Task: inverse folding
């Protein structure tokens, strides 16, 4: 509904408002305001869609961390995850498996920032699929 109905309809409304304002029809100011309002709603809808996508990706990063921790240590990561910020979790995902445990320990004990974690990584695993 969002991509195939709402966004095209809002785009058509913006275009119609601009056309009606430019063609010199009566109530030109009303059409200008209509076009501006429709454009603002369209912009907010596109930004909200992007916000939802990024929020979902952040949740996926957390799930990846939990799965990796479970695979490597054979136990749940809830206690460890509470001691880390999201930025630290996101930075740790770039570390190779052999670097993950020492970096995780350092990140917790030394309260390393995400940038410090990234700088400490020697074998970088790039993430080319993030939006």
Result:
């Amino acid at each position: 509904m969002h991509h195939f109905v709402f966004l095209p309809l809002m785009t058509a409304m913006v275009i119609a408002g601009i056309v009606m304002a430019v063609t010199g029809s009566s109530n030109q100011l009303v059409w200008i305001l209509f076009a501006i309002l429709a454009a603002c709603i369209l912009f907010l809808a596109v930004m909200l869609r992007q916000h939802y996508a990024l929020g979902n990706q952040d949740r996926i990063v957390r799930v990846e961390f939990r799965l990796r921790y479970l695979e490597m240590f054979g136990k749940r990561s809830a206690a460890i995850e509470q001691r880390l910020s999201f930025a630290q979790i996101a930075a740790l995902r770039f570390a190779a498996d052999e670097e993950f445990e020492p970096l995780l320990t350092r990140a917790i004990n030394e309260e390393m920032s995400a940038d410090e974690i990234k700088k400490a990584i020697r074998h970088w695993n790039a993430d080319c699929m993030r939006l």
The mean pLDDT is 92. The chain has six helices and no strands.
